[in-house]
Design a protein that fits this description.
WD40/YVTN_repeat-like_dom_sf; Reg_chr_condens; disordered C terminus; WD repeat; WDR55/POC1; 0% helix; mainly beta; disordered N terminus
């Protein structure tokens, strides 16, 4: 029997955070505690301490242009941010923690991601290249070249052996992380890719596209597994850390929660005004967050997933949840 301690089986809005002055573009939970990192168009990185009755926010300054992406290392010791100022910064996530800038690319840096081992940092840029960096020594390792337009997102597989990236060249590329060689290219037939994320198994990659679809690819046989039309323009997609669900967001002001095992949407969540640019799960999957063009961050309680990764029976029908 599952260890179920929740009493409400629907996602619930817990916090509405306001601190950024412009659009929120990226969100990342600290895997070790309840810190949340955010970044956006106001050139800032913010670190939130989220407790039931005590929310605090600290601003980190250093970038001189839009901050496009932020992520924590899996040990929680560092957070990294990428920016349109062509740099990546490595931060210590404490009050007034120091940062180390990398002159990473010759154009805007769109995406940054730690390897699962925390030894390397992956960046992608408008200069059409992916780059790998050594975290400990803060030095460049290698470039991966193949995309022919701006790179939007790149992620490591859970075991760190594979990298997936999407770009404005209508492609999803799969790379060998050790050799830096592209081992397969998927062609996106409609729209371009905006965000990618690996399923925890490491064998499936979800891709959000400007056409509004989310596509799930099997990288073992290089075939598309599932195709969902969910938004007017899909901006982000993330898998639940231990269950077969994913979140997606779009320019249509909605968040979708999809059961990939049954192949259907479960929930449509509303609350933001304008585009929702980013969503992400906490490491334990108990919470997820959304950030939008309204400069707000919403923190949600997941609730519909049990401790063994299955869904509550009440989630068996599609529901719509609106928040004023």
């Amino acid at each position: 029997m599952s260890d179920i301690t929740l009493t409400n089986n629907d996602p619930i809005l817990e916090h509405n955070l306001q601190g950024h002055k412009k659009q929120v573009l990226s969100l990342s939970f600290n895997p070790i505690n309840k810190q949340l990192a955010s970044c956006g168009n106001d050139h800032s990185v913010m670190l939130w301490r989220i407790a039931p009755n005590n929310i605090r926010c600290y601003g980190f300054k250093g970038h001189t242009d839009v901050v496009t992406s932020v992520c924590f290392s899996s040990n929680g010791r560092y957070m990294a941010s990428s920016s349109q100022d062509n740099t990546v910064r490595l931060w210590v996530p404490i009050i007034k923690g120091p940062s180390t800038p990398f002159k990473a690319h010759g154009a805007a840096v769109r995406t940054v991601c730690f390897s699962p081992s925390n030894e390397q940092l992956l960046t992608g840029s408008n200069d059409k290249s992916l780059k790998l960096w050594n975290v400990q020594h803060r030095r460049f390792l290698t470039s991966m070249v193949g995309h022919t337009n701006w790179i939007r997102c790149a992620k490591y597989s859970p075991d760190g052996q594979i990298i997936a990236s999407c770009a404005d060249d209508k492609s999803l590329r799969i790379w060998d992380a050790s050799s830096g060689q592209c081992i397969h290219t998927f062609t996106i037939r409609k729209g371009t890719g905006t965000h990618v994320d690996f399923h925890q198994s490491g064998i499936s990659v979800a891709l959000a596209t400007t056409s509004g679809s989310v596509q799930v690819y099997d990288i073992r046989n290089n075939k598309i597994q599932q195709h969902y039309v969910l938004h007017d323009n899909a901006t982000c997609v993330v898998w639940h850390p231990y269950a077969n669900y994913f979140l997606s967001s779009g320019l249509d002001s909605t968040i979708k929660i999809v059961d990939a095992l049954e192949g259907r949407p479960l929930y449509t969540l509303q609350g933001h005004t304008g585009a929702i640019n980013t969503v992400n799960f906490s490491t334990d999957g108990d919470q997820f967050v959304s950030g939008g063009s309204d400069s707000r961050i919403m923190v949600w309680s997941t609730n519909f997933v049990t401790k063994d990764g299955s869904s509550f029976s009440s989630a068996s029908t599609s529901s719509q949840v609106s928040v004023e």
